[in-house]
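Serine hydrolase
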Amino acid sequence: MIMKSVGWRRFHAVVASAAVAASVGAPAVGPAHASSSGYDQAALQADLDAIRDAGTLGVQARVVSPGGDLAAASGTAVRGRDVPIPLDGHFRMGSNTKTFVAAVILQLEAEGRLSLDDSVERRLPGLVRGNGNDGRAITIRHLLQHTSGLYDSVGDIEKKMHTERGYRTYRFLRMNPRRLVALSTGHRPLFAPGSRWSYSNINYLLAGLVIEQATGNSWRKEVKRRIITPLRLRNTTLPGDSPLLPEPHVQSYTQDAKTSRPFRTTLLSLGWAGAAGEAVTTTGDLSRFWRALLGGKLLPPQQLKKMTTTVPVGAPGREFGLGMAKQQLSCGVTAWSHPGGTPGFITDNAVTRDGRTSVIVSRTTYPGTQEQGQATARLIDNALCGTSPTD
């Protein structure tokens, strides 16, 4: 998710869907471990077909475990036509970008180049001020865990793209992150920093600026040299203002908020979303990133522990760390994830704490329905717990 309207609402919806998957038709809880032994290609295909039947035009998924790599798709790549979906097609991953950015921040902390307790004012003097907003009271940790209280002005822009007319008006939007921060501080804060949790894309635009202040390089350059290049994520890009997707890719669609009719949103510039959600990837690359991150290949143990230290987000069982969310599966396994949404794409994922098993799901109908979210949560639960849809 890059956006407020999908932002915290979608995070709550994802966790709620996971809770449904963990309670409805779930097997008896056994030892807390993930296994792919009972989950095969046929089970994955059945789960994807269930998501398609819930109304998604197209969906692809990848399950990677010590037992192998499963990939499948269901639906169509082009609305109204029978066009196969490429099993590793490119898609906009939205707020999964935030997890990349959080990892870079934690690498910089491990190098002694910043502290999570540094104030925003120290790193970005004068940027967060006015209307009760005070960068002296907001730390980098608050940014990464969404406890800053800053208003999410990014969401105001994104809402305008929920209709075909709005999309055509704003699809090539260009805006500097500092301008978006200024729009945010034009509003009073939602709460005192550290006192509550509320999803705000502004937090990660600021995190991107912190990376630039600490390194002298753009956040894009640091993400590329620290994560994309070392992990050989050859299909992951930070396109800036380019509205084009690399080939192969599906067509993506958004359901008009006024007419409910799907309209194509494949051509879209998200450079203005920047460190909060501009990245493009594939299921293979995103799986490799999540497994490397939780497997300890990107961060020292101390920083990974900080990343997985959570705060409650306002409801029982819902917790958020530094750039990732925590969820409990039906088999007792704790999984980590960060959902993402942009006009046209929804990305869901989960990886076990040891990084050995991951699930990536990309849907092409935005913003999606509760039924589609629940079907996706069941796929994730089935795959990580090693069950099939009929178990």
